[in-house]
Amino acid sequence: MITVVGESLVDLIEDPSGEPVAHPGGSPANVAVALARLGQPTTLLTQLGGDGYGALLRTQLASSGVRLDPASVPDLPRTSVARTQIGADGQARYDFAIDWPSFPHGSLSGVADGSECLHTGSLATVLEPGADDVLALVRERRAGTTISFDPNCRPSLARDAARARLRVTELVAVSDLVKVSREDLDWLHPGQPPDKVARRWLELGALLVVVTLGSAGALAITRQEERRVTAPQVAVVDTVGAGDAFTAGLLAALSERDLLGVARRPALRAAGPETLDAVLNEAARVAAWTCGRRGADPPTRAELAGLTAPA
Questions:
Q1: CA 85 → CA 11, 173, 186, 266, distances in Å?
Q2: Which domains does the chain have, with CATH numbers?
C-alpha cells in the first residue's frame, strides 16, 4: 500500500464559454487518485469540508478506489479552492483559497503503518500549522517506509519564502525519492542547473531525484547514474495535474519493480540505466495522458494498456 498525505481541493476551471466548472484537485489528492487508477492500493490522509465541494471530492476519491485514512479531517468549515486559469499554451495558473490546520493531537499515530511508501508534498508541507504535523509524521515514518516528496511550490502562498525553502530542504533530507519540476527549481534555487541541485539533494540523503522538464522530458539522477528521456507527443488540453500524474506513474513503476519499501533502499540506490529509463518513460506517459484531458483526470491502467496517449 502507498499512503499519500496532503491537501484535497476543488479546481475551478473556466470552460470554453467562460463559466467556472468544479474539478477535483489538490496535488496529493491527484497523486492518490492516479495511483489507485493505476492499480496501486492507496490511502489518502487529507482535510475536507462538509460542503458540496467536499462531497464532490469524496465521490472522486471513492470512485477511483482511494481509501480515506480515518485520521483525515472531514469537517472543515469550507473545502479549499483553486481558481485556475488556462493560458493559450495550456499552462495552468492558480489563485488559492486554502486552509490547512493542525490535525487533532495524537490522531496521526497509526498513519502509514504497513505502507511501503509515504508520499507528500505541495501546500500541505509548507502551510502552517498543519505542515508541522506533516513534517513530524514523515520523520517518524522514515525508519519504516520509503519517503517520496514533491515540493510542487506555490510561491503566491509562501508567506515567508526563506522559511518555505528551508522546509523543502528539511523534507528533502528525510526523503528517499524527490520529484521536482524545473519551475520549482527556478524558484527554489534561481539560476542553478537542475543537475547541480539534484546532486546536492543526493548529498542531503535522497536516493533518487527526478526533475520534470515539461515538453523537454525528464531527468533522473542517482549517485551512479544520470538519465534523461523525452516527453511523448500529445495535443495539450491543459496541464492541470500533469506533474501529479507523473509522480503517480513514477511511484507505480517503482512499486511494480519492487523498489519501494525500507528493505529495498539499497536496490533503489543502485537502480541501473535500463530501470531508470523505464520508470521515467512510464511516468511520462501517464502525464501525457493527463495533459490530453480537461482537469486532473489521470488514466486507468486499462487505458494505458489498451490505447496510446491522447492526441
A1: 10, 34, 21, 43
A2: 102-306 (3.40.1190.20)
